Amino acid sequence: MIRTLTYILLGVFFLSGCEEDNSNTLACDTDHSLDEISERNFSMGFSTWVFGPTESNRDETYQFLYSNADIYSEQIEYKIPWNAWINNSPLPPEFTREIDRRVSKKMKTHQLLLSVSLLNIDRSDLLEDYDGSIPNYSALNDTVIENAYFKHLKYLISRFDPDYLVIAMEVNELKIHSESKWTAYQSLMNKIRTRLKDAYPNLPLSESITLHNWFEPEVKDQTGFISEISNYINQNMDFAAISYYPFLKGQHKKTEFQRAFNFLHSEVSVPIAFSETAHLAENLTIKNFNINIKSNACEQKYYLETLLLNAHKQNYEFIIWWTHRDFDKLWETFPLEYKDLGKLWRDTGLLDEKGTKRPSFTVWKKTVEKNRIR
Description:
With 374 residues, the protein is α/β, with parallel strands linked by helices. The protein has helices at 55-68, 82-87, 93-104, 143-160, 172-177, 182-199, 222-236, 254-267, 297-313, 328-331, 336-343, 359-368, and strands at 13-14, 43-47, 71-76, 111-116, 164-166, 205-206, 208-210, 240-244, 272-277, 284-286, 291-293, 318-321. The strands form two sheets. It has a nine-stranded parallel beta sheet.
């Protein structure tokens, strides 16, 4: 998921686009626009992010995905065992146990998107190893980095056998946060991509882009930034993998959501897929970040309706809603230093923390049950 705070740290107070009655029972507007979807031409799914810390919570997550999706996403973004790949030494048991556990739950009836992160939490440098270190390098395209990361991807492909692969996540954030590394990063990815295409010619490859930091980006040269990211996608990707959280951009209304979608469609010439997306269903207040964002379950429903209609009209490959259920139970186990960050996406599920279905779930279920035609 997107880990940058570029926009929300502005501390802007965003007003909600929905109304609430005196009993706090939401009455969402009815939208019949999705009635035109008689058959789906795109896949629908979720990531395997769990809502609670127990193994039964994990099992329940996979069961929900099995029943309510035809694609799902495994995101590998915790650590990279750099030292093992570089020195040909044994892989850390913590790494192999987690991969084994995920592979054991693979759903053969569903398509799989495998998303792997090269970059760290704020997308400014390499993701760290299990001992907290990163490899020494003079530039990101050093041969040692290339060979190690290729081994990492090749291992994960061999274990998961995905239908789609995101080889690095939210990469436009690197250009924003560490622009001096951007040229070497592109060179690194060109080499990695070539090697992967030779080894797996039929595996669609992409690198995910944050739409909220590509559309009207907070950079000095907006036109130049947009053009460079658009060209990078269109010249190098088999599909555009989009990461989009509208509330991070201060978007709350259908017209605002649609402006971002219109921008996306005008910039991309390859197939579009949403590799991760979600929207708040509750108010978000984080005092340490000076954040106070208004939202509710209706606003979430309106975003999902907008997303699905665009997926239908623009023939998206797939959409991945990041978490199916609010993860309050998991969030309670977070170390104190990560609680504020984790709270940003905690209340974005189609189910709330108790498992109660939100209006957006009804929209999702009605659409996912329509036959997929490709």
